[in-house]
């Protein structure tokens, strides 16, 4: 079976999708009887990052007109000529949705849509009028004609129903490749204890209130590392906030030998591959104070390194709270401060136990090997090759 993955970007510009879609397509490709093909749009980093998809060779297409619209006639033509049996759209509100509509009209073959959190209430409220226009032009058709909707979590499935969609839904999360280290492995030491955020530096991630809380926390023995790529100048807003609050900060991109002082904040810049692994090895805890997520890869990665996680309910991994692998916070400053105070006051043994529970949770539910097999069953079903899997909700 040939499965085509259609995404607006195959580079770091895609944020978490750069890791999740890549891993899903690669692990499905490794299954007997399956072949993955990847179709995407060109951006500033696609030529550099395409090699990370090996052994897959994504077909990357130029955009015609405004880049934000993602319209690509060559993508449409390539999909029609691809001989794919099933397509799986990753993300919505872009020209890729229009291209899949075109493929479906021409080929009359089934496709799935994974909105990747883009139907959640916060996401719908952001640039609402643009999404209403896109919905009328092409997105509502794309969603309504899908043979199956792919939700990453229960709350995303509820958001799909709230949007008015009546399609079958499969709830299959993102996954993780377990690192070579495990809970109990000796960590590298960096002096200060390290709280880490890894991800896109964007207002929806909740870093403003997190840093306001950090400025009021008794931070003895700790530093806060923010590793990620800036979007829309938000990083400078965070730096200005820290300066005004009197919290010391450094930017490692100015001098890679500089590190934050006790109680300070360190802006690390984008981090990938071995550099990110090294950062997670020296970290002591992870935070994601987000307003909206699909299912964040960064949290799963933190757990895979045995780290305790501080996160909001909007990260959509309630299993983490149920397993006592995470400290729950709200998105407001006071709630985040309370969660951080809980973290820094815990004995070292208790902190390690929280992280170990997170690692076990990932092993039990969130490995790509498990997830790719579930996804393959759905592909076979929508293609008419097998009976409906139990995971499908009508």
Automatic annotation (TrEMBL):
Molecular-function GO term, any one: glycosyltransferase activity
TM region positions: none
Domain (Glycosyltransferase subfamily 4-like N-terminal): residue spans on this chain: 33-175
Enzyme Commission number(s) of this protein: 2.4.-.-
Enzyme class: transferase
Residues of the signal peptide: none
Keywords: Glycosyltransferase, Transferase
Annotated Pfam families: Glyco_trans_1_4, Glyco_trans_4_4
SUPFAM superfamilies: UDP-Glycosyltransferase/glycogen phosphorylase
PANTHER family hit by this protein: GLYCOSYLTRANSFERASE, GLYCOSYLTRANSFERASE EPSF-RELATED
Name listed for the protein in its UniProt record: Glycosyltransferase
Organism the protein comes from: Rubritalea spongiae
Source organism phylogeny: Bacteria, Pseudomonadati, Verrucomicrobiota, Verrucomicrobiia, Verrucomicrobiales
